[in-house]
């Protein structure tokens, strides 16, 4: 009996301590995570001490049903020792059914639970619609269905399950949130496609959320953990509206910076950073947010503007044009060249004004913004200061304001002077004098002014003066007609005036020319477009060019039908007309007369108010040499006689000889332009009736009448002349006698015959 009772007691004791029986289990919800419309969490189980084995179980949890527009559940990561597992939604509750393993042979075929929590499964709820509230998961322990958990134990040779009467069911619960927000949170989006975030180190961990276009509205949810990714859009998504929120950073308290990538150009991004305590998607408690905002830079253009050109340049304005690059917009900056260039700053917008005197904005140091707008390729600038050199830089950019990205590694640049102000000073001491038949010299007092230059314009006096145009540079040439034209005039000088004079050639003879002097400024710029001329003539004057007279005349006395080579006299080295009746005081001499000289003659330029018969006014006189072919040359024996005219006129030419009757041209000298004026008495004859002897009787050849051998009495060949020849008869040494009418060195009957034949002829000078 005692033995039987012992075995009974032993059996009861063994049953009470069956292998695996613990009656202790802790079920927790961990790793709550929300991403887009999915909400996931893990179910963990453990013991407070010892080991037990999980058998059949129904785990029922209620939710904040308003968080989902519709509710669906799925599971994953089921412990492999669980024989059957299902998840479903019943009356808005989450019901998880765990089925035992009927083929199990020992407790080891079931999930073993120890004091270290073991994940039983992962649960995913879908169709999240409220991003501001927690899931509020809670275990349901009453009603039906409700939470029931069984443990597996070994009873003898059999496996048995027993209900856990008082399982510990732990729903997520937030801890104490950090009291203060992160400080000095700053977003720098100055690099294309990314943001640099910085903040002060915090003791607590931090979570960063980014949103495109609007401020972060939802933020993290207590007790929920989030997966972060620095690439925007790859971390957990908190908001599923058109402007979504993504978790872009999760760091411990020592971190102070993060780089967020994957940002779109030209888009505004808002960032919120939260301190948090707790973790494991179960106890997180988030602080208030610190926020920062920035706009992602647009992509930088790759092709710079080029080909800057300036037009319509005035003292206060000019136009700028250029070839566009590939930027959406352009920033045009103008500065005085003495101001250092300052590049634009990415992410900064500028206001613009094309009035340089009233700037709206600058990139710094007087780099004033003219244009901050779509790329048009041209603009007009006003408000400039005359005579200043300006520099322009044109930067292509994309975006605007805080998204603006400027191409500064390559840009168009150029310099340009504004047109200089009109000068006010004048040339002094301007004089104009002819120096040759084709040349006039203009002289002046050297102005010695570094700021001014001068041009001299030559024109016919009958042409009106034309002022030079601002913005033009005029090429000068001292050959009249070869320099650049201004109106009807030509530029014959362009310089600083230091030369003191200029001689102009290629002029027509016997022509009056006027000379206008204009000051101008801007030569230091080496740009004709900025030159500015005085409107008024600074100095002027006029002069008439001298005139060469190419005259042909034959003397009857020595002419033999071919030429006058038969002359046989000794021509004096000095002109002989310094006596009555000529009384010419000229000093013409020639100490080495050419062999073909016939004699000295006296030339007179005459003017008339009406026709040759009235050409009685003698304007200029000079002695010249007559050659044996009838050509008259100057006293030097070779050059054409030149008259230093003081006034332009139509001139007649008269020729006097010491023993032939004087003649005057029947017409004015023929205008030779730049060449000598001409008159040929031998073919054209002379003024008056029988003013010359018709040598051939047919008007083909005319010669001056010989026999005027007594010039002191009158201008007619008469008895007085005959008497003088007769008185001097038989003079065989008449080397230069007036009575030698045929100029053969003898006074004989030939001379008397000449007087007789031409008796009663008188000179027909007007």
From TrEMBL:
- Taxonomically, which superkingdom? Bacteria
Q: Extract the Gene3D superfamilies matched here.
A: Immunoglobulins
InterPro entries assigned to the protein according to its UniProt record, in alphabetical order: ECM_Regulatory_Proteins (IPR050991), FN3_dom (IPR003961), FN3_sf (IPR036116), Ig-like_fold (IPR013783)
The segment(s) forming the Fibronectin type-III domain are 179-281, 302-403, 423-528
Check the UniProt entry and state the signal peptide residues, or none: 1-20
In the UniProt record, does the keyword Repeat occur?
yes
* Claim: NADP is one of the keywords in the record: no
Q: Which UniProt keywords apply?
A: Repeat, Signal
For this protein, the record's PANTHER family field holds: FIBRONECTIN TYPE-III DOMAIN-CONTAINING PROTEIN (PTHR46708:SF2), TENASCIN (PTHR46708)
**Name the record gives this protein:** Fibronectin type-III domain-containing protein
């Amino acid at each position: 009996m005692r033995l039987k009772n012992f075995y009974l007691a032993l059996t009861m004791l063994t049953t009470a301590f069956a292998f695996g029986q613990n009656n202790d289990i802790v079920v927790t919800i961990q790793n709550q995570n929300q991403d887009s419309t999915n909400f996931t969490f893990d179910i963990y189980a453990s013991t407070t001490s010892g080991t037990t084995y999980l058998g059949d179980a129904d785990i029922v949890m209620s939710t904040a049903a308003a968080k989902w527009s519709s509710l669906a559940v799925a599971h994953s990561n089921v412990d492999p020792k669980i024989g059957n597992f299902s998840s479903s939604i019943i009356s808005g509750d989450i019901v998880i059914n765990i089925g035992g393993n009927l083929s199990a042979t020992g407790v080891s075929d079931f999930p073993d639970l120890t004091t270290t929590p073991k994940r039983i499964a992962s649960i995913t709820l879908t169709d999240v619609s409220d991003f501001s509230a927690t899931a509020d998961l809670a275990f349901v322990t009453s009603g039906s269905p409700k939470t029931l958990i069984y443990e597996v134990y070994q009873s003898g040779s059999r496996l048995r399950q027993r209900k856990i009467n008082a399982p510990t069911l732990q729903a997520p619960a937030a801890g104490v949130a950090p009291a203060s927000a992160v400080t000095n949170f700053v977003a720098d989006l100055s690099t294309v496609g990314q943001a640099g975030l910085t903040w002060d180190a915090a003791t607590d961990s931090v979570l960063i959320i980014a949103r495109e276009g609007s401020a972060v509205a939802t933020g993290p949810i207590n007790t929920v953990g989030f997966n972060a990714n620095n690439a925007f859009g790859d971390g957990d998504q908190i908001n599923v509206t058109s402007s979504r929120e993504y978790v872009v950073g999760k760091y411990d308290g020592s971190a102070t910076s993060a780089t967020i990538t994957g940002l779109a150009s030209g888009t505004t991004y808002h960032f919120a950073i939260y301190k948090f305590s707790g973790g494991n998607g179960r106890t997180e408690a988030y602080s208030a947010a610190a926020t920062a905002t920035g706009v992602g830079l647009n992509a930088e253009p790759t092709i710079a503007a080029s080909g800057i050109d300036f037009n319509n340049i005035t003292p206060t304005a000019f136009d700028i044009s250029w070839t566009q690059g590939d930027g959406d917009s352009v920033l045009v900056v103008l500065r005085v060249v003495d101001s250092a260039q300052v590049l634009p700053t990415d992410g900064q917008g500028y206001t613009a004004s094309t009035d340089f005197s009233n700037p709206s904005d600058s990139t710094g140091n007087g780099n004033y913004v003219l244009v901050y707008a779509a790329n048009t390729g041209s603009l007009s600038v006003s408000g400039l200061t005359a005579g200043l050199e300006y520099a322009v830089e044109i930067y292509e950019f994309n975006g605007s304001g805080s998204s603006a990205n400027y191409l500064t590694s390559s840009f168009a640049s150029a310099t340009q002077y504004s047109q200089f102000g009109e000068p006010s000073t004048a040339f002094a001491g301007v004089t104009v004098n002819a120096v040759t038949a084709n040349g006039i010299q203009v002289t002046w007092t050297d102005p010695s002014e570094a700021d001014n230059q001068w041009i001299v314009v030559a024109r016919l006096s009958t042409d009106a003066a034309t002022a030079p145009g601002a913005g033009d540079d005029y090429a000068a040439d001292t050959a009249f007609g070869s320099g650049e034209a201004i109106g009807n005039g030509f530029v014959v000088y362009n310089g600083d005036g230091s030369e003191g004079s200029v001689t102009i050639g290629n002029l027509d003879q016997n022509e009056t020319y006027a000379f206008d002097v204009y000051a101008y400024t801007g030569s230091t710029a080496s740009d004709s477009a900025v030159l500015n001329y005085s409107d008024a003539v600074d100095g002027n004057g006029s002069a008439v060019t001298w005139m060469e007279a190419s005259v042909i005349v034959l003397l009857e006395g020595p002419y033999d039908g071919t030429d006058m080579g038969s002359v046989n006299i000794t021509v004096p080295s000095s002109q002989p007309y310094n006596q009555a009746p000529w009384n010419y005081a000229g000093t013409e001499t020639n100490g080495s007369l050419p062999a073909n000289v016939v004699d000295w003659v006296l030339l007179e330029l005459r003017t008339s108010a009406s026709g040759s018969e009235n050409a009685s006014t003698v304007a200029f006189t000079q002695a010249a040499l007559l050659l044996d072919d009838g050509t008259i040359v100057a006293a030097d024996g070779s050059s054409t006689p030149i008259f230093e005219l003081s006034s332009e006129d139509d001139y007649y030419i008269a020729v006097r000889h010491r023993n032939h009757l004087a003649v005057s041209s029947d017409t004015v000298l023929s205008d030779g332009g730049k060449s000598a004026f001409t008159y040929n008495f031998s073919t054209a004859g002379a003024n008056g009736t029988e003013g010359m002897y018709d040598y051939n009787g047919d008007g083909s050849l005319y010669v001056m009448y010989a026999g005027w051998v007594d010039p002191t009495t009158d201008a007619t060949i008469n008895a007085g002349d005959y008497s003088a020849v007769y008185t001097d008869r038989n003079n065989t040494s008449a080397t230069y006698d007036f009575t030698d009418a045929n100029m053969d060195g003898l006074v004989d009957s030939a001379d008397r015959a000449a007087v007789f034949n031409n008796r009663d002829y008188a000179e027909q000078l007007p």
